[in-house]
Amino acid sequence: MGLFKQLEVDFDLEIVEDFFSHYGIMCETMEPLIIGLNKPEEYEVNISELFRIFHNMKSAAGFLKLQPIIKLATLCEDVVEEARIVEGPASEEFIDWLLMVSDQFEKYRMNIENDDEYFGMLEPLIIKIPKKLQKN
Rounded to an integer, what distance in angstroms lies between the CA atom of residue 58 and that of residue 77? Predict the structure, then answer.
């Protein structure tokens, strides 16, 4: 049984469809927000919005017990929480890392949409959290 079918068995179909719809919107929204982090005038709003997205992903995936999404969203929420303290713009290293994270969330979305048996492997470079969050 695939990921989507298992969710349908374990939860009400409306809840699963709502999650998948909102998760897709959050995945689509991430990239423009990440790219905007290189502009000082957009940094504060974009980093706060990214924090909100990761927090919402963690909460929604937590309800549905989607462990890979929970773990990645928790990591991202922690890193972005630190980035909220610094002033922008973001370093290239941080932007590249966030874009890699965005791609990973999209892969997870496709795993669910394709009703794959398992989530794909985590991109190993994601665990190499950027040391420098702010451009200097």
Answer: 8
Both tokens assigned to 113? 């949409």
Q: DSSP states of 93-118 as a string?
A: HHHHHHHHHHHHHHHHHHHHHTT-SS
Return the residue matching tokens 């451009």. Answer: 135
Report the run of H or E that residue 37 belongs to, with start and end: none
**pLDDT tens readout for residues 64-101:** 999 999 999 999 999 999 999 998 899 999 999 999 99
12-27 residue pLDDT tens: 999 999 999 999 999 9
Provide the terminal-to-terminal Cα distance of the chain, rounded to the nearest Å: 50
Report whether 7 contacts 112 (CB < 8 A): yes
What are the phi and psi torsion angles at 86 (to 5°)? -85, 160
Count of helix runs (H) and strand runs (E) in the chain: 5, 0
